[in-house]
Every structure is written in C-alpha cells, then in structure tokens.
Amino acid sequence: MGQVWLFFQEGFFHIVSLDSIDHLFFLLALVAIYTIKDWRKLLIMATAFTIAHAIALLITIFNLVTIANDTIEWLIALTIFYTCIANLFLQHFQNAKIYIISIFGLIHGIGFSQVLRTLFTGMNYNPWQTLLPFNVGVELGQLLVLSLFVLLIALIGKLKFMTPKKINQLISIPVATLAFFWMIKRNIF
What we know:
Elements: H1 2-16, H2 21-31, H3 39-61, H4 69-89, H5 93-120, H6 131-157, H7 164-185
C-alpha cells in the first residue's frame, strides 16, 4: 500500500506544483472559452485528455514509443500555443476539439512518462502499484486545477466590464505569448 500511496502522491503533486507549469498553462488555455454552464463539455474533454494521457503513459513506460525529451517539450509548448490561437481565431476548432485534445493528451502523457521513468529507477515495476496510482493522482490533480480555473473565470466573469470574449483574450493572449517563447527556447530544428 505504501508504494501505491507514494505514486498517487507523486502524480497528484506533480500536477499541482510549479514543476508542471507548462501543463498548468495548457489547462488554463483549455478552459479560457468556457463557463461553469459548460461543465459537461469540459468533463468530456478532460475525460478524452485523461484517456489519451493514460494510453501514452502505458505505451511509453513499456517502451513501445520513444520520443526525445526535447521534442516532447517542444510539442507540449506547441499544444499550448495552438489551444490559445484556436481560442482566439479558430471557431471551427471547437467542433474538432475533442479529437485534438486527445492528441494533445498523448503528447502530454509522453511528457509525464519522463517523470515516471525517473521514479521507477531501481524499483520493481508493477503497473497496478505504480502506473495506475500515478495516473489517478495526475488526473485528480488535473480535475482540481481545472475546477479552480473554471471558478476563477466565473469570478472574473462577474465583473460588469468582463465579457467571455475579454476573458478569453485576457487568458489566451499572454499564455500564447509564453508558449511561443517556450517554442523558441525549446527549438528542436
């Protein structure tokens, strides 16, 4: 039980800490266009992201896919940038968002697999005692963060001068700028 709890905590605190700042900004960008009334859409997207995320963790932990860490870090920045640009300019993106979010879940999951590889060093690997609790911790942390972001957006939306469009711009423009900077800094070309 100790190993299960350890990996659950590692997953949860990895998400809610500043060690995952790029993932936190991705989640913020993801919810920038939604309100509390859109909770079903957000839940569906979070679930699609979670499933893809879990699949990516599995396939990378079992060495079925290997992608250089530099490439994954650049792709994570790209997912953030694309989400912000889609929020601002690509209304047609919303219809395909669940599919795109699933692809982004694969990319972010591969990124998290690097954390798991470090944790597994010198351990007997048991997916039920390591991978599953880590993933559950990540996903619960992610749901907590998403909920806090939605509540924050709802509070900002209560201000008379704030419209959904302004809130989207307030979030998506600076996050896109930061993600673009990360893409340049993490340049893989």
